[in-house]
Amino acid sequence: MAEYSIRKRRSNKSKSFRYVPLTILLFLAALVLGLCCLFRITDIVITGNNLYTEEEIIQAADIARGDNLVFFSASKTGARIINRLAYANDVHIIVDYPSTVEIQLNESVAIAAIECGSSWWIIDAEGKVLEQTDENGAARVIKVTGLEITDPSVGQKITADNDTKLGYLTELLRAMQNRNIQEKISELNINSIANITFDYDGRLTVNYGDGASGTGKLDKIIEVIGRIGSNAEGTLGFSGDGTVHFIPA
Fold first, then answer.
1. What domains appear along the chain, each with residue ranges and CATH number?
2. Residue 40 DSSP label
3. CA–CA separation, 238 vs 246, rounded Å?
Protein backbone atom coordinates (compact mmCIF):
# COMPACT_ATOMS: atom_id res chain seq x y z
CA MET A 1 0.00 0.00 0.00
CA ALA A 2 2.81 2.40 0.84
CA GLU A 3 4.51 1.55 -2.43
CA TYR A 4 1.28 2.34 -4.33
CA SER A 5 0.99 5.77 -2.61
CA ILE A 6 4.56 6.63 -3.57
CA ARG A 7 3.95 5.67 -7.20
CA LYS A 8 0.77 7.77 -7.24
CA ARG A 9 2.52 10.85 -5.84
CA ARG A 10 5.29 10.50 -8.41
CA SER A 11 2.72 10.18 -11.20
CA ASN A 12 0.87 13.31 -10.05
CA LYS A 13 4.16 15.21 -9.77
CA SER A 14 5.15 14.15 -13.28
CA LYS A 15 1.80 15.35 -14.65
CA SER A 16 2.25 18.71 -12.89
CA PHE A 17 5.68 19.22 -14.48
CA ARG A 18 4.21 18.55 -17.90
CA TYR A 19 1.97 21.58 -17.47
CA VAL A 20 4.84 23.96 -16.52
CA PRO A 21 6.06 24.71 -20.09
CA LEU A 22 2.50 25.36 -21.21
CA THR A 23 1.98 27.73 -18.29
CA ILE A 24 5.17 29.62 -19.15
CA LEU A 25 4.16 29.89 -22.81
CA LEU A 26 0.73 31.18 -21.86
CA PHE A 27 2.30 33.72 -19.51
CA LEU A 28 4.73 34.93 -22.19
CA ALA A 29 1.95 35.14 -24.76
CA ALA A 30 -0.13 37.23 -22.37
CA LEU A 31 2.87 39.45 -21.64
CA VAL A 32 3.62 40.06 -25.33
CA LEU A 33 -0.05 40.71 -26.02
CA GLY A 34 -0.16 43.22 -23.18
CA LEU A 35 2.96 45.00 -24.44
CA CYS A 36 1.56 45.09 -27.95
CA CYS A 37 -1.57 46.74 -26.72
CA LEU A 38 0.30 49.20 -24.51
CA PHE A 39 3.27 50.42 -26.61
CA ARG A 40 1.73 51.97 -29.69
CA ILE A 41 2.92 55.07 -31.54
CA THR A 42 0.71 58.06 -30.87
CA ASP A 43 3.21 60.91 -31.48
CA ILE A 44 5.77 61.31 -34.29
CA VAL A 45 8.07 64.30 -33.76
CA ILE A 46 10.28 65.47 -36.65
CA THR A 47 13.09 68.02 -36.37
CA GLY A 48 15.69 69.41 -38.78
CA ASN A 49 13.55 69.17 -41.91
CA ASN A 50 13.54 72.11 -44.31
CA LEU A 51 13.21 70.51 -47.73
CA TYR A 52 10.79 67.72 -46.85
CA THR A 53 7.38 67.91 -45.22
CA GLU A 54 6.55 65.84 -42.17
CA GLU A 55 4.20 63.75 -44.30
CA GLU A 56 6.98 62.96 -46.80
CA ILE A 57 9.34 61.89 -44.02
CA ILE A 58 6.74 59.73 -42.29
CA GLN A 59 5.86 58.09 -45.60
CA ALA A 60 9.55 57.41 -46.34
CA ALA A 61 9.98 56.00 -42.84
CA ASP A 62 7.04 53.66 -43.47
CA ILE A 63 5.61 54.19 -40.00
CA ALA A 64 2.22 55.38 -38.81
CA ARG A 65 0.44 56.33 -35.63
CA GLY A 66 -0.92 53.17 -34.11
CA ASP A 67 2.08 51.05 -35.09
CA ASN A 68 3.53 48.85 -32.38
CA LEU A 69 6.77 49.97 -30.73
CA VAL A 70 7.60 46.46 -29.54
CA PHE A 71 8.61 45.47 -33.05
CA PHE A 72 9.88 48.92 -34.10
CA SER A 73 13.46 49.13 -35.46
CA ALA A 74 15.07 52.57 -35.32
CA SER A 75 18.01 51.53 -37.52
CA LYS A 76 15.81 50.08 -40.27
CA THR A 77 13.52 53.11 -40.17
CA GLY A 78 16.48 55.48 -40.48
CA ALA A 79 17.89 53.47 -43.39
CA ARG A 80 14.56 53.65 -45.23
CA ILE A 81 14.49 57.44 -44.91
CA ILE A 82 18.04 57.80 -46.24
CA ASN A 83 17.40 55.41 -49.12
CA ARG A 84 14.15 57.07 -50.17
CA LEU A 85 14.93 60.76 -49.63
CA ALA A 86 18.05 61.87 -51.51
CA TYR A 87 18.57 65.00 -49.42
CA ALA A 88 18.45 63.01 -46.16
CA ASN A 89 22.11 63.02 -45.14
CA ASP A 90 21.87 61.68 -41.60
CA VAL A 91 18.96 60.42 -39.51
CA HIS A 92 18.87 59.89 -35.77
CA ILE A 93 15.79 58.27 -34.27
CA ILE A 94 14.84 58.40 -30.59
CA VAL A 95 12.13 56.16 -29.13
CA ASP A 96 10.48 57.68 -26.07
CA TYR A 97 8.34 54.97 -24.50
CA PRO A 98 5.51 54.34 -24.25
CA SER A 99 4.29 56.12 -27.39
CA THR A 100 6.63 58.68 -29.04
CA VAL A 101 9.08 58.43 -31.94
CA GLU A 102 11.34 61.40 -32.67
CA ILE A 103 13.05 61.65 -36.06
CA GLN A 104 16.02 64.03 -36.14
CA LEU A 105 16.92 64.78 -39.75
CA ASN A 106 20.11 66.35 -41.09
CA GLU A 107 19.66 67.37 -44.71
CA SER A 108 22.36 67.55 -47.36
CA VAL A 109 23.23 70.92 -48.89
CA ALA A 110 23.36 71.23 -52.68
CA ILE A 111 26.74 72.74 -53.53
CA ALA A 112 27.76 71.75 -57.06
CA ALA A 113 26.56 70.35 -60.36
CA ILE A 114 28.35 68.13 -62.86
CA GLU A 115 27.23 67.47 -66.44
CA CYS A 116 26.85 63.91 -67.65
CA GLY A 117 25.06 62.99 -70.83
CA SER A 118 22.28 65.46 -71.47
CA SER A 119 21.71 66.24 -67.79
CA TRP A 120 23.31 68.01 -64.88
CA TRP A 121 23.59 66.22 -61.55
CA ILE A 122 23.40 68.17 -58.29
CA ILE A 123 25.75 66.89 -55.57
CA ASP A 124 26.59 67.71 -51.96
CA ALA A 125 30.10 68.27 -50.63
CA GLU A 126 30.59 64.54 -50.13
CA GLY A 127 29.76 63.78 -53.76
CA LYS A 128 26.31 62.34 -53.12
CA VAL A 129 23.90 62.88 -56.03
CA LEU A 130 20.89 64.81 -54.78
CA GLU A 131 18.92 65.36 -57.97
CA GLN A 132 18.97 65.38 -61.74
CA THR A 133 18.37 68.72 -63.43
CA ASP A 134 19.01 70.83 -66.53
CA GLU A 135 21.44 73.68 -67.16
CA ASN A 136 19.10 76.25 -65.63
CA GLY A 137 18.81 74.17 -62.48
CA ALA A 138 22.57 73.78 -62.32
CA ALA A 139 23.05 77.55 -62.38
CA ARG A 140 22.05 77.84 -58.71
CA VAL A 141 25.17 75.97 -57.55
CA ILE A 142 28.84 75.66 -58.54
CA LYS A 143 29.22 74.28 -62.06
CA VAL A 144 32.07 71.78 -62.11
CA THR A 145 33.92 71.12 -65.36
CA GLY A 146 36.90 68.94 -66.22
CA LEU A 147 35.65 65.80 -64.45
CA GLU A 148 34.01 62.88 -66.24
CA ILE A 149 31.54 61.09 -63.99
CA THR A 150 30.10 57.66 -64.75
CA ASP A 151 26.53 56.37 -64.38
CA PRO A 152 25.28 58.94 -61.85
CA SER A 153 22.26 57.90 -59.81
CA VAL A 154 20.20 59.97 -57.36
CA GLY A 155 20.97 59.00 -53.78
CA GLN A 156 24.36 57.47 -54.64
CA LYS A 157 27.86 58.97 -54.52
CA ILE A 158 29.37 59.87 -57.86
CA THR A 159 32.10 57.81 -59.46
CA ALA A 160 34.56 59.28 -61.93
CA ASP A 161 37.17 58.33 -64.47
CA ASN A 162 39.82 59.85 -62.23
CA ASP A 163 39.71 59.13 -58.48
CA THR A 164 42.41 61.73 -57.74
CA LYS A 165 40.37 64.49 -59.34
CA LEU A 166 37.27 63.34 -57.50
CA GLY A 167 39.12 63.36 -54.18
CA TYR A 168 40.46 66.88 -54.75
CA LEU A 169 37.01 68.07 -55.79
CA THR A 170 35.16 66.81 -52.71
CA GLU A 171 37.92 68.09 -50.42
CA LEU A 172 37.70 71.55 -51.96
CA LEU A 173 33.90 71.58 -51.91
CA ARG A 174 33.89 70.65 -48.21
CA ALA A 175 36.37 73.45 -47.51
CA MET A 176 34.26 75.98 -49.40
CA GLN A 177 31.13 74.91 -47.54
CA ASN A 178 32.87 75.02 -44.16
CA ARG A 179 34.00 78.57 -44.90
CA ASN A 180 30.55 79.49 -46.25
CA ILE A 181 31.82 80.86 -49.55
CA GLN A 182 30.09 78.43 -51.93
CA GLU A 183 27.52 81.02 -52.96
CA LYS A 184 30.32 83.29 -54.19
CA ILE A 185 31.55 80.68 -56.65
CA SER A 186 29.74 79.86 -59.88
CA GLU A 187 32.30 77.76 -61.79
CA LEU A 188 35.13 75.40 -60.83
CA ASN A 189 37.44 73.76 -63.36
CA ILE A 190 39.34 70.65 -62.35
CA ASN A 191 40.54 69.64 -65.81
CA SER A 192 44.13 69.76 -64.55
CA ILE A 193 44.84 68.52 -61.03
CA ALA A 194 47.96 70.69 -61.08
CA ASN A 195 46.00 73.83 -61.92
CA ILE A 196 42.51 73.89 -60.45
CA THR A 197 40.73 77.17 -61.13
CA PHE A 198 37.51 78.80 -60.01
CA ASP A 199 35.83 82.17 -60.22
CA TYR A 200 34.94 84.23 -57.17
CA ASP A 201 32.01 86.63 -57.01
CA GLY A 202 32.03 87.06 -60.79
CA ARG A 203 35.02 89.39 -60.57
CA LEU A 204 38.05 87.33 -59.60
CA THR A 205 39.69 84.34 -61.28
CA VAL A 206 41.48 82.12 -58.75
CA ASN A 207 44.34 79.93 -59.93
CA TYR A 208 44.24 77.52 -57.04
CA GLY A 209 46.94 75.24 -58.38
CA ASP A 210 47.59 71.72 -57.16
CA GLY A 211 44.81 70.12 -55.13
CA ALA A 212 47.35 67.95 -53.33
CA SER A 213 48.53 70.93 -51.31
CA GLY A 214 45.48 70.79 -49.05
CA THR A 215 42.78 73.32 -48.26
CA GLY A 216 44.99 75.67 -46.24
CA LYS A 217 45.53 77.56 -49.49
CA LEU A 218 41.86 78.48 -49.50
CA ASP A 219 42.31 80.39 -46.24
CA LYS A 220 45.14 82.39 -47.84
CA ILE A 221 42.95 83.20 -50.82
CA ILE A 222 40.08 84.36 -48.59
CA GLU A 223 42.46 86.52 -46.54
CA VAL A 224 43.79 88.30 -49.64
CA ILE A 225 40.26 88.80 -51.03
CA GLY A 226 39.40 90.55 -47.79
CA ARG A 227 42.38 92.87 -48.14
CA ILE A 228 41.96 93.90 -51.78
CA GLY A 229 38.38 95.08 -51.29
CA SER A 230 34.94 94.11 -52.50
CA ASN A 231 35.20 95.84 -55.87
CA ALA A 232 38.59 94.56 -56.99
CA GLU A 233 38.72 92.62 -60.24
CA GLY A 234 41.53 90.49 -61.57
CA THR A 235 43.38 87.24 -60.96
CA LEU A 236 44.64 85.57 -57.80
CA GLY A 237 47.33 82.90 -57.78
CA PHE A 238 50.23 81.42 -55.83
CA SER A 239 53.88 82.21 -56.25
CA GLY A 240 56.64 79.64 -55.81
CA ASP A 241 56.97 80.32 -52.07
CA GLY A 242 53.23 79.76 -51.48
CA THR A 243 52.21 83.39 -51.08
CA VAL A 244 49.17 84.76 -52.89
CA HIS A 245 49.63 87.42 -55.54
CA PHE A 246 46.92 89.58 -57.05
CA ILE A 247 47.00 90.85 -60.63
CA PRO A 248 44.40 93.59 -61.23
CA ALA A 249 42.29 93.38 -64.38
1. 43-107 (3.10.20.310), 112-248 (3.40.50)
2. B
3. 9
